[in-house]
Amino acid sequence: MKSTLMNTQSKIAFMLIMAFLAIIMLFSGWIYFAIPSFLHDYYYDVLEIRAMAAGQMELDKNEGELNGLRAVFSEKLMHEEDLFFKLEQDMDLRTLADSLELPISFFQTIIKEGRARHQEKRLFYVGITYASKQGNYIVVSRAQDHFEEGFIAYLKKTLVAAIIIAFSVSLFIAVYYSRYIFKPLRDITEKAQQISSENLHLRLDSRNNNDEMDELIKTFNDMLDRIETAFETQNNFISNASHELRTPLTAIIGEADVALSKERTIDEYIESIRIMLEEAEKLDAKTNALLFLAQTGFNGKIQQFTRLRIDQLIWDVKSTIEKLNPKSNIRVDMSLLPEDPTKLKVTGNEQLLHLALTNIIGNACKYSNNQLVNVSLGASDDNVVIVIKDNGIGIPTSELKHIYDPFFRASNTKNYEGYGIGLPLTRNIIKMHHGKITVSSLLGSGTTVQIKIPTTNQISV
Amino acid sequence: MKKNVLIPTDFTIESLNVVKFLLQNRPNDCRYNIILLHGAQAPDTITELLFFSKSKMLASLSNRSFEEACGVIKNKYASGIASMRTDLFSGYTQAAFNNYLLANRIEEIYIPNSYHLHAKNPKSIDLLPFITKCKQPVNKIEWKTEALLPEKGSLAEIFYNGVVAN
């Protein structure tokens, strides 16, 4: 996993460097070819003017312009030479060209177009036709562009240095950038590796900036929510089963033991078997209720979210609890029920919500020793509110923050059976329904659990 | 039949008991326009007055649980409530208060009897002296205040405090 990640990271860095490099090369190439060609043209123009001036000076001896021309000639170009050839009708261009070691086409162009340019190794040639007082001449000026040579060498050096610097900067940027991009991914991987079945309640930290990484983190956390719920559902079932089924089983075994200890009358046997039947029926009812709770929408199908009415659900939960614990004393308080029943509709998984409420109300019954438990229902504009209030042992204030940790049990629950599974499971289920659960408690005088679930209208908006 | 009713509030859920009581014992065909009034001084410096906004002041005084509790009551007594809103009174004199009652056509005022409305904020002013001196009929509502409830302050309180619904 690590190596592929590094690969992607270095791949991105490599691609970035390549892109940078291509752009740098393109720029430098452009500059390297464009500037010398401009200098060439400029130098030819200078030579041409000098050829013209040389023609005037040497052939016409034009005194009037001599002063101005002196200024032009004040600076001698390197290896400068001006050559004059009288233009005649039957001129032998071939010998002329050979004597200067120039291609014949140079002179042909001069005659045809009046001017020509040529470069032979490091010497630049410019030829023009010049109409002087003694007749037409070909003036050829040649010189070496010392300035350009130096300039090109300097340009080369500068460009190479610039490329090296730009490359190292782009290397730094590419490496830093790819690191920066992959940092959250590495963090996620690191954090995700810590999560195992022992600590499924751990979640990745959301960065709250709604980018793709945040989306990934959210998706991952949602998945963990679902896995944890499924996991806890199983645990919950096992803990409930071991707890709830043992009592009737003990009763049946005890009754059978007593009946078999010696010979009895028929009436006594009938009585014993009747008690055993009663207990077995209780066992059956409990098993059914537990199995119903254990299904919880994870039976190999996609979780079904449907519209359901909370008041209906609460009555169902009440009957389930009364099956599991016939001594429970639950009062459903509908005094603040809204007049409009559609306000009680939520979108949710009925079995999961059933399980969640069974856990909370069952706990309320358990920890208040089957005193009266009030279950109230109301609806605000956004949420359905379920409040479960008992007068039980309460939760110590210092331990309130731990109640959602799996397997945590408050210090005052030693006399009650339980495994600390129900509440985390319930919170997960409520979280899956975008709801909120708040537990407030006073030690010794009771606990109030408040559950808010957004109504269907609220979600669809 | 519609009636405009004024109830002083301190933005606690317990103070909503007055509303609960009023609505439980309403005549069948009666619909109420309820104003939950809180007294608070307007700021007295020019800069503060420049940026003063009544809705912002109300939002800072109110809280989520209180609003949700109002929602629960509104849904429960949907047929008995024509409107319910919170408002701010920032006058200093009895005449100003009388004018406020006149402007909002308040016909009746309901106040808690033994429950003491808290000053929510240093700027809060007690409305009871104004209420007792005004001409509109004032009804006092009594309920038993339980000293300690685990759900104190949270929305759950609306279900259990004081007036028990029938």
UniProtKB/TrEMBL annotation, chain A:
It comes from Parapedobacter composti. SUPFAM superfamilies: ATPase domain of HSP90 chaperone/DNA topoisomerase II/histidine kinase (SSF55874), HAMP domain-like (SSF158472), Homodimeric domain of signal transducing histidine kinase (SSF47384). The chain crosses the membrane at residues 12-35, 159-177. Residues 240-457 form the Histidine kinase domain. It is found in: Membrane. GO terms for molecular function: phosphorelay sensor kinase activity. CDD domains: HAMP, HATPase, HisKA. Its EC number is 2.7.13.3. Signal peptide: none annotated. It catalyses: ATP + protein L-histidine = ADP + protein N-phospho-L-histidine. The keyword Transmembrane helix applies. This is histidine kinase. Pfam families: HAMP, HATPase_c, HisKA. Keywords: Kinase, Membrane, Phosphoprotein, Transferase, Transmembrane, Transmembrane helix, Two-component regulatory system. Residues 179-232 form the HAMP domain. InterPro entries: HAMP_dom, HATPase_C_sf, HATPase_dom, His_kinase_dom, HisK_dim/P_dom, HisK_dim/P_sf, Sig_transdc_His_kin-like_C, TCS_sensor_his_kinase.
From TrEMBL, chain B:
This is Universal stress protein family protein.
